[in-house]
Design goal:
The chain is an alpha/beta fold and 231 residues long. The protein has helices at 10-13, 23-38, 55-60, 65-89, 111-119, 137-147, 181-186, 194-202, 217-222, and strands spanning 3-8, 42-47, 94-98, 107-108, 123-127, 152-157, 178-179, 206-211, 228-230. Helix content is 40%, strand content 18%. Helix 2 crosses helix 4 and helix 6 runs parallel beside helix 8.
Length: 231
């Protein structure tokens, strides 16, 4: 395994704050990405925007869903820039790309250029989702992982993996080490949203769900020592 994609939610970047960014979380993510890079992996990242604005929530306030989703995509670009700066501060070469054209701010996404950056040893951070409304950043992450020919999609969460039931509500919840895609569907386990999960399953993309909030877990997840492998 040499090329992976990390999916980080916007909520993760705010840490324990109600809004915005946690400098501690940005530093931790940068440290974990650097550890993975030093282990010889090519890394791309898709980041969400929930710490700033969520498209679905915006639609609930009366904003037209299409406009709300575009606002959410703009929030992901802000997060991509913030994460890119954190990685740069760590001494990591980074390219931030957006599915929405804004050349004066970040580079517009191009499959060929993204592959070239990865091959040159740079970390590529993708913002702007898929560039289309009605698609989640889970779907964007799955799409980019397939396009980048990644060996694994790493879905960062605040829990240790996929459980048979909500561990926050049930003390007897059991974590899975491995699951097939069909098992996850049959058991009704919410690994990702259905569109993203179906896309991953159809293309044979393995997903590892792991706890981002434990320092060092990123490399462990890639090595199969942390989280749940689905696929």
């Amino acid at each position: 395994m040499k090329r992976v994609l990390l999916k980080i939610s916007g909520e993760a970047l705010k840490g324990t704050k109600d809004f915005g960014y946690s400098s501690e979380m940005l530093k931790q993510v940068a440290n974990d990405v650097n550890e993975l890079k030093e282990a010889g992996y090519q890394i791309s990242i898709v980041v969400g925007g929930g710490n700033i604005f969520r498209g679905v929530n915006g639609a609930e306030t009366g904003i037209k869903r299409v406009n709300s989703d575009y606002m959410g995509m703009l929030a992901t670009v802000m997060n991509a820039i913030a994460l890119g700066d954190a990685l740069n501060h760590k001494g990591i070469k980074v390219k931030v790309m957006s599915a929405i054209k804004m050349d004066s701010v970040v580079e517009t996404y191009s499959y060929k250029r993204a592959i070239s950056f990865l091959n040159e040893g740079e970390v590529v951070v993708f913002g702007g989702g898929t560039g289309n409304p009605y698609f989640t950043t889970d779907t964007a992450a799955t799409l980019r992982a397939i396009e980048m020919d990644c060996d694994m999609l790493l879905k960062a969460t605040k829990v240790d993996g996929v459980y048979d039931k909500d561990p926050a509500k049930f003390e007897d919840a059991v974590i899975y080490d491995k699951l097939s895609s069909s098992e996850a569907i049959q058991k009704g386990l919410k690994v990702m949203d259905l569109t993203a999960f179906a896309l991953a399953s159809d293309n044979g993309l393995k997903i590892t769900v792991f706890n981002l909030f434990t320092s060092g877990n990123l490399l462990k997840a890639v090595e199969g020592k942390a989280g749940t492998i689905v696929g």
